[in-house]
Structures are given as C-alpha cells and as structure tokens.
Design goal:
A 7-stranded parallel beta sheet has the order 3-2-1-4-5-6-7, sandwiched between helices. It is about 40% helix and about 15% strand. The relative contact order is 0.15. Helix 6 links the parallel strand 6 and strand 7. The N and C termini lie far apart (about 40 Å). It has a single domain, classed as NAD(P)-binding Rossmann-like Domain (Rossmann fold). The radius of gyration is 17 Å and the shape is globular. The longest helix has 27 residues. By secondary structure, the chain is α/β, with parallel strands linked by helices. The structure holds NADP nicotinamide-adenine-dinucleotide phosphate. The site of NADP nicotinamide-adenine-dinucleotide phosphate has 31 residues, from helix 1, strand 2 and helix 4.
C-alpha cells in the first residue's frame, strides 16, 4: 500500500508500541487517530508528532463509546484505510492467584476491544475500492504458552484465530489482515508483573518499523502472521 495521505486508527497509542507505531505512521505522511484512556499522554505525543496525530480519549472496552466515536468521526468521505488493534494488558500469575477482575480486564481489552473496534471499522473499509489493512498485535505468547500466562495467552491465541478467520473472510474486499506476534518489548507493559524489562528486549521503534514494512508490501502480497523475537532474550 502507498502510505502517504492515508488515514489510520491506532489503539493503545498513549505508550509503548502504540506510541511508536503512531510515530512511524505519522512519519510516513499518515493521519493517525490515536486511541487510549490517558488523554494527557496522548497530548504529550501530539505535541511531538504534530497535527497529523489526533488524540482520542476512549476506552475500547465500552461498546457505546466505541460505536458512538466511530459513527461521529467517520463517513463515506472520511474513512480509515489502516486499523492497528494494539491496546492490550497482561497479568502474569498462577491461575489460583489471578482475580476474576484481572482475567476479565484482559479478555475485555485484548479481545472484546479488538472486536468492537474492528466491527465498526470494517463496514467503512468495505465501501472503499482500494487496499485496506488491519494489523492485530498478538504476542509470541499467542503461539507458545508458558506457566502463569494462562489468561494472557488465552487472549493472544484467540487473536491469532480471529486474525486468520478475518483474513480469509475479508481478502475479497481487499482488506489485508495481519497478526503481528512480538516477543518481549521494552515498554511499560510489565508494570503489573514481576517481569523486569531489560535492553535485550525488542525495541518498540524496531517493531513499528517492521509494521511499516508489512503495510508497504505490494497490493497482491499478504503477510498473514509474523513472529518477531529478540535475538538474545535474557540480559547476561
Ligand atoms: N511489551 C511486550 O513485551 C509485548 C510483547 C508482545 C505483545 N505485546 C502487545 O503489544 C501491545 C502494546 O503493549 P505495550 O507493550 O506497548 O504496553 P503498554 O505500554 O502498557 O501499552 C498498552 C496500551 O494499551 C492502552 N490501553 C489499555 N487498556 C485500554 C483500554 N481499555 N482502552 C484503550 N486503550 C487501552 C494503554 O493506554 P491507556 O492506559 O492510556 O488506556 C496503552 O496505550 C499489547 O497488545 C501487548 O499485549 C507486548
């Protein structure tokens, strides 16, 4: 896809990978609607990225809020070509130590939020004749499960299945669907866990550049799923 002057939605744009993807997209000449709950962080990013980054304060788990925002923002004349379903949370605990609230927050954010946003955007995409692209941020933990990742892995394995079904369903509407499964990235993601970030982890900017490459593939080429790993996972 030629990226200049396209319109994108990035969920979870207020920090980490979503902020890096938003920056990379704006640098390609794309207008980005950056969604998160923390409006202050979104405004800080907007100060850096300029008028092509539009901060949107929205909780993607709220059905009415998502539907109202999409209906009030987009129309047949103003419609996104790119959707990055990136917002996500993770709680890493033994199953008998995980609260139902933590489990539900992961399902609501990682999975239900992805459905809510996609189901609003896909009808708008279907009305456009050109190529469109949905990128779902999964995880390596959606391909290999580990102890204390049951809830998170459940959502990310689901993301893989959701993405594969969508790519087969939407290919004839010229909508590409890619599930990007990164290994550990050095972000705030682990703030709710005992996992310590270290510089051998992937860097958000590098994952974002890979996503730009995936978006730029020729119109007849689809990368449906990709795993990105850090070369050396543990700091020595
Ligand atoms: N870091 C890693 O090692 C890693 C590895 C593989 C995959 N991933 C995936 O990468 C994605 C981004 O994570 P990250 O590493 O960048 O972590 P992060 O820095 O914690 O970012 C998570 C983002 O999601 C947003 N978010 C959370 N709940 C939301 C909600 N209900 N509505 C709207 N936005 C919400 C947060 O913003 P607000 O709090 O402002 O709403 C934040 O912008 C996630 O899907 C994660 O599962 C991360």
């Amino acid at each position: 896809m030629e990226l200049k002057n396209k319109i994108a939605i990035v969920t979870g744009a207020s920090s980490g990978l979503g902020a890096a993807i938003s920056k990379a997209l704006v640098h390609q000449g794309i207008k980005v609607y950056g969604i998160a709950r923390n409006l202050q962080n979104l405004h800080l990013l907007s100060d850096r990225l300029g008028e092509n980054f539009i901060p949107v304060s929205l909780d993607i788990t709220h059905v009415e809020a998502v539907n109202t925002w999409a209906k009030n923002t987009f129309s047949e004349k103003l419609s996104p070509q790119i959707l990055i379903n990136n917002a996500g949370v993770g709680y890493f605990r033994k199953i008998d130590e995980m609260s139902y609230e933590e489990w539900k927050t992961m399902i609501d954010t990682n999975l239900n939020g992805t459905f809510l946003m996609s189901s609003q955007v896909i009808p708008l995409m279907k009305k456009q004749g050109n190529i469109k692209h949905i990128i779902n941020i999964g995880s390596i933990m959606g391909t290999i499960a580990q102890p204390e990742s049951s809830g998170y892995s459940a959502t990310k394995f689901a993301m893989q299945g959701f993405s594969e079904a969508l790519f087969k369903e939407l290919r004839y509407d010229k909508i590409k669907v890619t599930c990007v499964n990164p290994g550990s990235i050095e972000t705030d993601f682990f703030k709710n866990s005992d996992i310590k970030t270290h510089s051998n982890m992937l860097h958000a900017d590098d994952v974002a550049e890979t996503i730009i490459h995936i978006l730029k593939t020729p119109d007849n080429v689809l990368i449906d799923s990709i795993i990105i790993r850090p070369l050396i996972p543990q700091a020595k």
